[in-house]
Each structure stands twice: as C-alpha cells, then as structure tokens.
Amino acid sequence: MLVVSLRAFANKHISHLKKSYKTAAVIGFVSKGIIYLVIGVLSLMAALNMGGESSGTNQALLFLKKQPFGQVLLLLLGVGLLCYSFWMFLQAFKDPENIGSDSKGKMRRFGLFTTGLVYVVVAFLCFYHLVTYPMDDSANSRYLDFLGPTTLSYVFIGIGIILAIQGIVLTVGVIKGGLLNQFNLEGRKGSAVIRTVGQFGFYARAFVVAIIAYFFFRAGIYTGNHEIKGIQDAFSFLDQSTFGRILMAVTAIGFISYGAFFVLLTRYRSFEE
Q1: 171: domain range?
Q2: How many folded domains does the chain comprise?
Q3: pTM of the model
C-alpha cells in the first residue's frame, strides 16, 4: 500500500513538473517572438518612412523601455527569455523530444545549447536596461581593445566564419525542410500556413546573418575598423544599397514573420516532455 501511494505521489509530481517545463517553453517562445516582432516592425516603419528606425535587439529593448510600464515589460521579457534558454538547455541535456545521440543529433543538441547561451545574454540585457542608460556607440567594442589588433582580427574573422556557416545551415535547413520539421507541426491545423510564415522568417534571418558575417570579415581584414556590428547595422546597410528601401522592407517583414512564427508555435506546436 505504501509503495503504491509513493508511486502515485511520484507520478503526480512528475506530471506537474512536465507541465512546468511546457509552461516555461511557451513563455520562452512568446518572448523570443516579441523581440523579433518589435525589430521587424521598427525596421519596416523606417523603410516606409513612418517614423521608425533600423533596429536590432538593443534598440528593440530600448523601444520597449520607453513605452508605458516599459520597465515591467523588460522585466517580464527578461524572465521569458530565461524560460526560453531553460527549454533550450533541457532539450540539449535531457533530450525530451528524442533528437538522438548520433553525430547529427549531438550537433543539433549542441546548437540548442549555444542558442540557450545567446538568449541568456539577451535576457540579462533586458535586466541591464532596467537600471542603466544606453551606452554610446563607441563603447560597443572598446572592451575588446586589450586583445590587440592582430588577435582581434583573428577573433573577428573567426566570428565571421561561424556566422557564415550559421547562415548556410539556416538556408539549407529551410530548403530541405529539416529546420521546420523539428517543431512537430505535422498533422496540426494551420500547419501549412505556419510553415510558410516560418520559411520566410528563417530566410530573412539567414540573409541578415550573412550580412553580419560580412561585417565581421571586413572588420577582421581591415584592422583599423574593429566595430561590432549587429542586426541594426545590417538593416542600415540594406537601406544604403541599391533598392535599399525595398530590400529593407522585405527583410523587416521577414523578421516580423520570424517573430510571428515563434508566437504561433505556442498554439500549434506539441512540446514533448
């Protein structure tokens, strides 16, 4: 009798724990989607001369901070992004969705782990903006000066190579379908629409990643220009190119699609625990 009771208690506890995992995943996906939606909307407004400006993660957070109850929004967003990181780490180490332990599975799980680390940084950036004012642009890379110009060149070229590979992996993953298949949308109502939105969003993200990779290659080759570039700079680069406003608008819509995709996933995706 005691064994049965303990087993029932354990099963109930595990059930609650699994629900907590799923809740964290849902909150995390919505939070990530909000970041990209804000970046996309602000950049689209800039492309259409509607008062926005080319935007990156930092600018999106500053925009949210200026809104009514902005600090509350940043706090909730920071917590949400930590939830997203938690889900990434859970997938990387516990493999609840059976990604696998073969070489391909390990690579995917390592990718999930690094994604988790990235969004831990973004989450703490949210908390940072709660208590500080924006840094001037020259401060972005000043803390790297101790490395010296030669070492810094190699670092930037290395980052450029990693980003270039990421852009290629994103593009190939969307073309072959594997990147979207991982979200367990098969057989669900509206999955075709969500896949289309996701495809456009991932293509836009891969395009911007490729531009940022170019920035890092250029900064590594020309040792006098060690400025860290990001999403905002990529949109500005598009704006200054031939057909700049059109490219910028299309890419901004892609970022909106990318953000919407992650929000929609919380409604249609099955989070396996």
Answers
A1: 25-268
A2: 1
A3: 0.75
